Amino acid sequence: MRLRLKIPQGVDWSLVFIPIFLSIFGIVLIYTITYGNENNIALDQLIFTGVGLTIGLFLTFLDYRIFKSLAWPLYGIGLLLLLIVLFFGSTTFGATRWIDLGFYRLQPSELFKFISLIVIAKYLSDLTEINFKNLMFLVFIIALPLLLILKQPDLGTASVIFIGLIALLIISPLKKIYLIAALGLAIVLSPLGWHFLKPYQKHRIEVFLNPSSDLQGEGYNVNQAKIAVGSGGLLGRGLGKGSQSQLNFLPVAHTDFIFAGTAEATGFVGSFLLILLLVIMIYRAINVAKEARDSFGTYLAAGIGAVFLFQTLVNVGMNMGIMPVTGIPLPFVSYGGSAMLTNFVFIGILQSIYLRHKKIKF
What we know:
Layout (H helix, E strand, L loop, with lengths): L13 H21 L6 H21 L4 H4 L1 H18 L1 E3 L2 E6 L4 E2 L1 H19 L5 H19 L4 H17 L4 H18 L5 H11 L10 H12 L11 H4 L11 H34 L3 H25 L17 H19 L7
Helix pairs in contact: 1-2, 1-12, 2-14, 4-5, 4-6, 5-6, 5-7, 5-13, 5-14, 6-7, 7-13, 10-12, 12-13, 12-14, 13-14
């Protein structure tokens, strides 16, 4: 008797091959950028990718609707982890964002991207009508973890979660006058938030508004990133051959400024293809939201698409000097274990939603 392995018909293969290709490209780029360093972070990224793929595959065949019943327990676990970070977290570059497990440094704020979307999607899908009272409660339950994340400080991740909330409110049946009023109030009160920013965060904004004000200090990273992007030309200098990234003129080229490293190595053509793949992935996420069988799936897929879109816009933008530096990674390409795992969780959820909008055949 021959045993035949059959794969399900109906999987969105663009959401399989694009994340894998982006991850492999990121690993290769990280290896060339960090070659010679004592810490073999490219190998770490390869391991994270393998674990992430496994988790994504598991979630593909798991009914995504189970997370609707787990939303509040996950919310509680997420808050607990954020509190643990606040009191017992590991600090790097002045930010306390990680829980050191010995074999792995967990970043709970990254995981809360996923948890926040689950909670928001559940809450909105359970409501037949969204009034101002419902809106205020939702804002409160998201504001609580946001404050803990800002305390780390991690403005980038906090802004991603906030954008996810706004995106889902936009597609919800909420009367848009409430949303406009809330955003208007936020804009009016935003100057007050200036006093709660860390000195280096204030300086980053000042340098963004006037890039030439501190080229040797806070503006150095962005200036070097712009040089790297421009030096790539049409076809790039080749992997491992860029002066900005290889000679360490470009700081943290494997994380925040990996797009600049991409542009230097592969030029305009390679950068364009990278962005095109990310755009296709985001487009497919939006299509999954449209095809979902239930409102929970719609909200969840739309939120994932919004998160991918925002992270791509901000990372590419700050590498080109048109967005403030916030430390937001480029999906699947930038180095980061927690970020990679979260990205593949998102892909697994999208596949689960997509598979269940049609009859699954094995």
